[in-house]
Design brief:
Ribosomal Protein L25, Chain P; binds magnesium ion; Glutamyl-tRNA Synthetase, domain 3; seven-stranded mixed β-sheet; binds adenosine-5'-triphosphate; 579 residues; alpha/beta; 3 domains
């Protein structure tokens, strides 16, 4: 039954991931756009944006938003802006801007304009002045605690600030002085004058500007006041003439404010953007919040934003994920109206599917034990032909060296085994991949009883592909191996989940850091076939019978380092089973 379900599920995933843009069923955002088009909106005015705040590296949740916005651009043949929402100079940096650009490009998308909210600071300021003149904004000079105390609760109205009725002249003069840097941080804020009794707490005279004597990564020291998100975002959409401003669900209550601000700047002559919301994507066994990811970096839990255990796009790239696998993942989970937790094994499924088609097969032994073929001539070697990728007929073949002394995986041998063990045991035969059939004969052990050598004999007529009767002989198991004399030592970094809990940041009384898996990294000294001597950073391979591996950014010709991208076995099926 489970297998049946799984079979259908994988077909479903395969179906979705192979569907082209035109045939995939429309998501609810596309329905909204289609309806707008039916109601007379011209396709020419469609415009979208992806609006990251450059306060960290993008993560897999952002990938959903990128695929959604840029995907809409492709579907409707409409421009998509990359807009940096850079209104908080205390947390934002050029490093993040550069990383974000790289990630979006790497995912395979092209933006129309590269925009910065900071480019609109003057326009926003001018509009704020107009709002003051209109009696719709005022300078408040209370502490943030006092203002918070006056906010009320969702069921009780707030109380007016004693500064709410300042004259337009006084407000203008104070606001200008705020801008000119004449006040300390925290001395004043500019607030919109809306409704302190609104059932929507966000409408209770929200702050539009605060004083910050900080250096901004683009505007330098030009500004001593910085606009808040709500004031900036919708107006930036308006300036760029974005038709559909898509954001995550937590902004739904902000929509009223988004519209209120727009009402005050909109001129009826141009396009009025509309905000629509979709559910944030959460991935199991990790956190997708830049703030939390920054803590992992700052507290040294990981080595950086691109540590291959991180859920950032840069980490996934370093670990060996392909852009297509991340796009397929985003497409498969689609977009939703309600939040849910997506199991990370689905992401792994997507990369496994992609790498199965792309990655050349090679042999590497991660946990070696020495195998001696006692009837193979000493000092002799031969080069055997090995197929590069059975999934790709153009992938060709390569030569791998064979000799008397090999490494095989320690787990591939048992002195005594039951009938279900299809690997090597004494007196049983297995095939060495691309090579000969061997038979286990005896073992050599050290003083503690650990096996140090396995001795076997081989059938010289059984070479794979030689066409002899013996070469066709079927044996139950096939093992991978490397010739000891020819082997290339490589470092292999194997990763486990970064968090032991499925949803580490969902516990009210516990900090997510308590769930960090202390054993998420295992470094192994392994041996690979000599064709891996000349690899380049980013090269991806299938280590046969083990999994997919990618050459790490720290790899050098002297010390080759591989990251394990994902194992061969599908764990998504198991997840389905549990449910
Ligand atoms: P974080 O909490 O990680 O900082 P954010 O929403 O504050 O996330 P932004 O840089 O403001 O980060 O996000 C840029 C865009 O990506 C926004 O439109 C946001 O809604 C979207 N986004 C962020 N996280 C997710 C997620 N987990 N799933 C889907 N979209 C997301
Ligand atoms: Mg944010």
């Amino acid at each position: 039954m489970i297998k049946f379900l799984w079979g259908n599920f994988s077909k479903f995933v395969a179906l979705i991931t192979s569907m082209s843009e035109e045939t995939r069923s429309r998501n609810f955002i596309e329905h909204i756009i289609d309806e707008d088009l039916e109601n007379g909106m011209s396709n020419d005015v469609l415009r979208f944006r992806f609006p990251p705040e450059p306060n960290g590296y993008l993560h897999v949740g952002h990938a959903s938003s990128i695929c959604l916005n840029f995907g809409l651009g492709l579907t409707y043949n409409a421009p998509v802006n990359l807009r940096f929402d850079d209104t908080n100079p205390t947390k934002e940096e050029q490093e993040y801007v550069d990383a974000i650009k790289l990630d979006v490009q790497w995912l395979g998308f092209e933006w129309d304009n590269e925009c910065y909210a900071s480019d609109y600071f003057q326009q926003l300021y001018d509009w704020a002045v107009a709002l003051i003149k209109d009696g719709k904004a005022y300078v408040d000079s209370q502490s943030s605690e006092e203002m918070a105390a006056q906010k009320g609760t969702p069921t009780e109205p707030g109380t007016h600030s004693p500064h709410r009725d300042r004259s337009v002249e006084e407000n203008l003069s104070l606001f200008e002085k705020m801008k000119n840097g004449e006040f300390e941080e925290g001395a004043h804020v500019l607030r919109a004058k809306i409704d302190m009794a609104s059932p929507n707490m966000l409408m209770r005279d929200p702050v539009m500007y605060r004083i910050l004597h900080r250096h901004h990564h683009r505007t330098g020291n030009d500004w001593c006041i910085y606009p808040m998100y709500d004031w900036t975002h919708g107006e930036s959409d308006y300036i760029e003439q974005v038709s559909h401003s898509l954001c995550t669900l937590e902004f739904k209550p902000h929509r009223e404010l988004y519209n209120w601000f727009l009402d005050n700047v909109y001129t009826n002559e141009d396009l009025r953007p509309k905000q629509r919301e979709f559910a944030r994507r959460n991935l199991s066994h990790t956190v997708v919040s830049k703030r939390k990811l920054l803590r992992l970096v700052e507290e040294g839990v990981v080595t950086g934003w691109d540590d291959p255990r991180m859920p950032t796009i840069s980490a996934l790239r370093r670990r060996g994920y392909t852009p297509a696998s991340i796009r397929n993942f985003a497409d498969t989970i689609g977009i939703a109206k309600r939040e849910n937790l997506v199991d990370v094994s689905l992401l792994e499924y997507c990369v496994r599917e992609d790498l199965n088609k792309l990655a050349p097969r090679v042999m590497a032994v991660l946990n070696p034990v020495k195998l001696v073929i006692t009837n193979y001539p000493e000092g002799e070697e031969e080069w055997l032909t090995a197929e590069n990728n059975p999934e790709d007929e153009n992938a060709g073949s390569r030569q791998v060296p064979f000799s008397r002394e090999l490494y095989i995986e320690r787990e591939d041998f048992k002195e005594e085994a039951n009938r279900k063990f299809f690997r090597l045991t004494l007196n049983k035969e297995v095939r060495l991949k691309n090579a000969y059939i061997i038979k286990g004969e005896s073992v050599v052990k050290d003083a503690d009883g650990n096996i140090t050598e396995i001795h076997c004999t081989y059938d010289p007529k059984s070479r794979s592909g030689s066409g002899t009767e013996e070469s066709m002989r079927k044996v139950k198991g096939t093992l991978h191996w490397v010739s000891i004399n020819h082997a290339v030592p490589v470092e292999v970094r194997q990763y486990d989940r970064l968090f032991m809990d499925e949803a580490p940041d969902s516990h009210k009384d516990k900090d997510f850091m308590e769930f960090v898996n202390p054993d998420s990294l295992k470094v192994i000294n392994a041996f690979a076939e000599p064709s891996l001597k000349e690899v380049e950073v980013g090269d991806r391979f299938q280590f046969q019978r083990i999994g997919y591996f990618c050459v790490d950014t720290e790899s050098t010709p002297e010390k080759i380092v591989f990251n394990k991208t994902v194992g061969l076995r599908d764990t998504w099926a198991k997840v389905q089973e549990k449910k």
